[in-house]
Write a structure and sequence with these properties.
Length: about 150
């Protein structure tokens, strides 16, 4: 995306995706993180998170995570100190950032944790802007990756 950010403004970026246990968008039950910088291989992390919240059948049907799957997992308050560095001093990237990032922020606020103002790019928004829906059938991440021959 030439011109959106200065070339050397960010030395790293973090791609992030969350899953929610219910329709309230205030808690997470899973978080995936991929950190890319100029040094070495990308860091890939995935955590199941105990949301300390109810699960809806509709959300379980979408992402397959059930209450018993997260029963012994840490809550976001315990996990955040380990993952917060992946959210600072970098550009965040998410497919549907207008969902993922507010969910993370609300989940942090529920735990009385601070979240800085993040700089981000939404790949869903950018794909809608630059790729006709007819090119790959939809702007879902799996369809875009398949159409662009990018391993998901």
């Amino acid at each position: 995306m030439p011109g959106l950010f200065e070339r050397d403004e960010f030395d790293a970026f973090t791609a992030v995706d969350v899953e929610t246990p219910n329709r309230y968008s205030r808690s997470i039950c899973s978080i995936g993180i991929v950190r890319v910088d100029g040094e070495g291989e990308p860091v890939r992390l995935h955590y199941l998170v105990n949301p300390c919240d109810d699960f809806d059948a509709a959300n379980i049907a979408i992402q397959g995570i059930r209450p018993e799957d997260v029963e012994g997992e840490p809550g976001l308050n315990a996990l955040w100190p380990a993952i917060e560095p992946y959210f600072t001093d970098c550009l965040l990237i998410a497919h549907n950032a207008l969902f993922d990032l507010p969910v993370i922020r609300k989940a942090l606020l529920r735990e009385d944790l601070y979240a800085e103002n993040w700089r981000y790019i939404c790949t869903l928004e950018q794909s809608r802007k630059h790729i006709p829906k007819s090119a790959f059938g939809s702007h879902r991440l799996n369809d875009l990756c398949a159409g662009l021959d990018i391993p998901l």
